[in-house]
Every structure is written in C-alpha cells, then in structure tokens.
Amino acid sequence: MITAEQREQLRGWFAGRLPEDVYESVADVVVDREEITVIGRAPAGETAAEFRARTREQRIAVAREAEELYRRKVAWGVEGEDGERTLFTHLAVPVMTRLRQSERQVLDTLVAGGVARSRADALAWCVRLVGRNTDTWLADLRASLEEVGRVRAQGPDSMESEQE
Known about the structure:
Layout: H1 4-17, E1 25-31, E2 35-41, H2 48-70, E3 73-79, E4 85-88, H3 101-112, H4 119-133, H5 135-153, H6 156-163
Parallel strand pairs: 2-3
Antiparallel strand pairs: 1-2, 3-4
Helix pairs in contact: 3-4
C-alpha cells in the first residue's frame, strides 16, 4: 500500500512525462503491487475510443519508461465530461484463497443463478459488490493505514538512523 504522498509523486511523474495534449489533466493514479493505473480527463468532446486511438503511441512510450522505473505494469484510463471512467488494457491478476464450504456455496449459488460463469467470476463479483457498498469504510481504512505508516516512520529506528 502506498501513501497519499507517494501517490501524488507518481501523479506528478506521469503529468510531467505525458505530452500536454494527451490529457487535460491527470485525475487519479491508482497503485497496487502489480499495476499503476493512470486516469486522466479527456479533452472536451472526445470519446474514450477517440482518445485511446489518438494517444496510443504517447501512452505506450511513457508506460515503457514507468514500467522499467517502478517495476509494475501501467494501465490507462480516461474520464469523460460526464465523470464516467473507461479503463484500457488493465490487468486481471489471479489470487488464491481458501474457502470453507459455506463460502463456496455462496459462489456456487451465484454460478447456478447465472450471475457468474464460474467461481472465479463469482468471487470477483462479490469483491466488486463489497467495494461499491463499503467505499467510505475502505477509504477510512486506507487513511488509517497511511497514518500507521507515518507514525511507524517516526519510530525509534528512524531516530537512530538519523543520528548515525
């Protein structure tokens, strides 16, 4: 998990590398262990498909530099005038989990009901549902993790290294 300060540094890095005519502005940078997703505002009147085609070569050049520097894949997205976001070629990373029978039955019910094609799709559906319905709680949790990181950085180990 990265801090808000690190996210702002990344946002600045991308804003500084992208040619001025790519995005009106970089709206958001989302980072996890595998991927950096850069989302910017499209110029007025431009559709997501038009934006994607027009900026492809420029985005690829910046992504290559970022992937070497940050050791993560880079995905791109665009935010339209209506605030709707469209992501381009982002990762779908497999994760492994152990589920008890009652949890597997939830997934199997979603599959049997036609909500999902497989247990993996059903699990992804559940994660999206939880994410949508707990945005505030997740934001609070992320903020508290950032605070823990800030306090940890001020701990006794950091004081010893400053005195050496």
